[in-house]
Automatic annotation (TrEMBL):
Assigned keywords, A-Z: Membrane, Transmembrane, Transmembrane helix
Signal peptide, first to last residue: none
Name recorded for this polypeptide: CN hydrolase domain-containing protein
Domain of life, per lineage: Eukaryota
Membrane-spanning segments: 27-45, 57-77, 97-116, 185-203
Keyword Transmembrane (UniProt): yes
Length: 544
């Protein structure tokens, strides 16, 4: 992405010149080329997104063309807008602010969130530590800032005065437009941002240290075809698989829409069956599709189908948490499912003492348990900005059932889950029941995928103890961090503007003195009034 943006920003002054023949034809052609490349990269995963391949390809190209157009528009605005600034620092920091703001806005207004942006979702780099403070916009700003550093460095290298007839003249000319110093400062700033990740690497904590960590085993129920010889698994199949993990895991999650209930009574009977047959103190996240009466219809004759998640344990006669999916895949899910408008909620579970640990070392009397805050969300909800903004505390674990139709899509959603975990500085149990689904635990220093495809698994993790439920800066203020990037444009700008103005006054004064001396020498005595040159006038915003 940095290479692409640096190439586009370097080419921008030539591409957007008004005196260029067929200027907009070249811009449109470039947009089509970018859209074609983006579509080709995502083609395999998109063929099954809609009912027909033709419709899928057309939709994919249309979305890619729109995103390419927005990207070129942001580069155009930055290229033209930078000419309005006298400060070199403002010129080099304008595009990163525009780029971060653009994708923040796009992610909020489109139905699939960050999936339909050029925003970077990978968070295994050295800048991941800034995510809890400024969110995804911080990564976008860093990418655009590095692109500007590369672009400005290449531009200055190509424009460096060469040996020749005009070499000495060019080398001694005032360089009001030069952004070299500000580019170096920006590069140094980006390099300094490496330091926290080098000093304190993002590594998983020690599970065995119970004084500062609460060890927790989590499991994902993904029954394989080899075991059950079925393509469509029943409630009994999932429950049988769950009992195999019950002795090894304290929290167990089923994938999105694992089972189907045709009525509220059928759902409640299944939940009661789970509670009755549980022999261990565990929490089970059951994801389901249910068809129930539409609450909008007072007669109850109209039905609706929705995807939900319920957290069940033997300690409660009702689910600890019930959540329904809020964002549906356009076309693939939206035509048959009903989305929910309810925000995620928190519940506090209790983790019993492991047998080898003395009671006082684990918790307080009388229960000698440790609390754990849990919440949930489902699949596409994780691609939407700030899905947990309504929570007043930070969860220790987020249950995330999913079901994707392609490995590429599964990996893209896994990256979104990791991004949300980094924003909240928490951990997510991601359980993808799709064909070639990507599953694992994200956050807490864990970066790698646990499993691709079917097959149940258990993963040991560690949650900080005592747990700090204070929300991160980004969780509190969301995208307001963008204001900082716009303020940064004007940092140092007044001093540089004054220096530029002072330099211009010196040049103008010397020029007038020289012209007056020439006129007096010629004996004409004519007063010469010299205005600013074309280049100086452009820099100071003077119309010629």
């Amino acid at each position: 992405m940095i290479l692409l943006l640096s190439t586009l920003t370097t080419y921008a002054p030539i591409l957007f010149r008004r005196d260029t023949d067929a200027q907009w034809a070249k811009v449109i052609l470039l947009g089509i080329i970018l859209a074609s490349g983006s579509s080709a990269y995502r083609l395999g995963a998109s063929l099954q997104a809609l009912s027909t391949p033709g419709g899928s390809i057309a939709s994919l190209f249309g979305i890619s063309l729109g995103l390419s157009s927005l990207s070129l528009a942001s580069i155009f605005i930055a290229a033209k807008g930078s000419l309005r600034f006298a400060s070199p620092w403002s010129r080099v920091t304008l595009f990163p602010a525009i780029w971060a703001t653009l994708w923040c806005i796009v992610s909020h207004i489109n139905p699939v969130g960050y999936l339909a942006t050029w925003s970077i979702a990978k968070n295994t780099d050295v800048y991941n530590w800034i995510t809890p403070y400024v969110g995804p916009a911080g990564k976008d700003w860093v990418v655009a800032a590095w692109a500007i550093v590369v672009s400005e460095t290449l531009t200055q290298w190509f424009m460096e005065p060469q040996d020749g007839e005009y070499g000495p003249l060019l080398s001694s000319a005032p360089r009001i437009l030069c952004n070299s110093k500000s580019t170096k400062i920006l590069g140094i700033l980006l390099t300094i941002l490496f330091v926290p990740s080098i000093i304190q690497p993002n590594l998983p904590p020690l599970v065995s240290n119970i004084d500062t960590r609460t060890p927790l085993s989590v499991g994902c129920v993904l029954p394989s075809y080899q075991t059950y010889k079925k393509h469509v698994l029943s409630f009994d199949d999932y429950f049988t698989e769950t009992k195999k993990l019950a002795s090894m895991a304290r929290v167990i999650l089923w994938p999105e829409g694992a089972v189907t209930f045709n009525s509220v009574q059928e759902r409640d009977h299944a939940f009661a069956s789970i509670r009755t047959n549980l022999q261990h103190k565990i929490y089970i996240g059951v994801s389901f599709e249910e068809t129930v009466s539409d609450p909008v219809d007072p007669t109850g004759r109209t039905s609706m189908t929705r995807t939900g998640l319920a957290v069940i344990s033997a300690a409660s006669s009702t689910p600890h948490l019930v959540y329904y999916k809020r964002h549906l895949v356009p076309g693939g899910e939206s035509f048959r499912l009903r989305h929910s408008g309810n925000e995620p909620t928190l519940f506090e579970g209790e983790l019993p003492r492991p047998n080898p640990v003395p009671k006082p070392d684990w918790g307080n009397a009388p229960n000698f348990t440790r609390p754990i805050l849990m919440t949930s969300s489902i699949c596409l909800d994780f691609a939407i900005p700030s899905p947990f903004a309504a929570l007043d505390r930070k969860p220790g674990l987020i249950l995330a059932p999913a079901r994707t139709w392609d490995r590429t899509v599964g990996h893209a959603m896994w990256l979104q889950a990791k991004q949300r975990a980094a924003e909240l500085n928490t951990m997510i149990l991601w359980c993808d029941g799709g064909e070639g689904g990507v599953s694992g635990v994200a956050g807490g220093g864990i970066e790698e995928v646990t499993q691709v495809g079917s097959g149940s698994f258990v993963r040991n993790i560690a949650i900080p103890h005592p747990f700090n439920s204070e929300r991160t800066v980004y969780a509190r203020f969301g995208s307001l961090g963008l204001i900082f990037f716009w303020i940064l444009i004007y940092v140092g700008a007044p001093q540089q503007s004054l220096a530029t103005a002072f330099h211009y006054m010196q040049v103008t004064t010397r020029r007038r003195q020289s012209m007056a001396a020439v006129a007096q020498y010629r004996g004409g005595g004519t007063q010469v009034i010299e205005g600013p040159s074309v280049t100086e006038g452009d820099l100071l915003g003077i119309d010629q």
